[in-house]
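Lab channel / #folding
Pinned by the channel admin:
"Please post every new chain as: sequence first, then the structure tokens as a reply. Keep commentary short and put observations after the output so the thread stays searchable."

First post following the new format, from NK:
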Amino acid sequence: MMDSYEEFKKRVAFLKSSVEKSKKALDEAEDDLNELLIDCPCVEREDKETYYSGSYYDKAFTKYWSQCKVCGKTRTIKEVTHSHYG
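Reply from TO:
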């Protein structure tokens, strides 16, 4: 039984080491990706909108924005307030 426990401990240590190496590689890749996305030209953009219904005290409005399909950067285009309350 002791042999199997020692093998178990070795396997756990190996897997922990493997996970740590993988996390480090993932962090490095994520850093590289973030550095690359800083210089994104944002050529492929998608127009989006969201309607907010408002409430008794707040008028309803719609927000329109443009979002890059590659890096996800957003740019607010406009906000249109409607003449009615929620």
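NK: DSSP finds one helix and three strands in the chain.
TO: also worth noting, Residues 43-86 form one domain.
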